[in-house]
Amino acid sequence: MTPFYRGLAAHLARQAPVILLDPFASFGPLAQSTREAAFERRHRLDDRHYADALERLVQHIGARGVIGFCLGGNFVLELARRGSDCALLAVYPFPQGLPNVAPLAPPIDYLPQLETPVTILLGDTDASVGAENVEALAACVEGNPAVSLHIFRGVGHGFVTGLDSDEGPLRAAAEEALAIAERLLDPNQPAEPDFGPSA
Description:
Rossmann fold; 7 helices; 4-stranded parallel beta sheet; disordered C terminus; alpha/beta
């Protein structure tokens, strides 16, 4: 987990209690900081088992909200599919689903009928998700009031880390995403953000 996301969690903790979860923590640090090593570790995670444990934790602590980024966004969408009654925010999830030894249902299959409110944030140039999947997601949730979909123009995967960017559209998208997360946890507030480095 990068210093940025730790800083973001610390910022959000000023508004509500925060538990920072890393689904890969039990596997230890990457032996090498490479895409291949990250994917190898990712495929060791049992998605269904992790989703079950997350659901139990959310119920046990009476969570006010759950925010998930990337793969974490898919776990948030799974909580919505299961009817979790806290505020849910999925940031750059994979609507087409992800391969796994115990895969979760692809969100695009259940989001059209979803009844549990969830907010989804994606960039329209997200190469990791794929432009075609962003478009398919937009089409499948159209008309479903339970799904609040925000597609940010001109930004890709990981755009929330652009809070200190010199690129206007990237920074604006990141700031709007932060404001959405803050409102999700506490509709009354925002504090001044103070994050670690974005990379």
